[in-house]
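Re: weekly structure request thread

Next one in the queue (178 aa):
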Amino acid sequence: MTRATVRQEVRPMRFEELYERRQRRELTIVEAADILGVTERTFRRWSARYEAEGLAGLEDRRIGQASARAVPVDEVLQMVTLYETCYTGWTVKHFHERWHYEHGGARSYTWTKNRLQRAGHVARAPRRGAHRKKRPRKPLPGMMLHQDGSTHEWVSNCQWDLIVTLDDEQFPGAARGY
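Done, posted below.
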């Protein structure tokens, strides 16, 4: 059950209760809208639809309809078939470039990659390790020392080295990149 379907079932019950309280003047429109988590304008529109059509007026009319931005099915099939017949084994990057230049493809690389993965022609890349993984602190001082050095002209015409040693316990953020 999708989130939209659950909301579709809960919305009429919550709205009906708040609408009745609004009719008894226990709540203002702004308060009722805040409780529902919608704008005042949306609550007014729902109220008008509820008065005209009853509970059926509260149904979300977008559920079950294809998105206006969805790619046509024949275009998806054409791209997947082209990969199957002529470019099997190619990387998505190379196929995408060829599809654009020679076959007039107009979709993004990410869209192409996702469609080929859904069709089972391209495997998903393994996840990479987390950058700068946090590690637990050492239990005692002196068990983890961080040392850094740099040469700099601290006094004119003299190159001196500065060496810094930090203990993990004394400066907990220094070792973790904070």
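DSSP finds six helices and two strands in the chain. The radius of gyration is 31 Å.
Next request, please.
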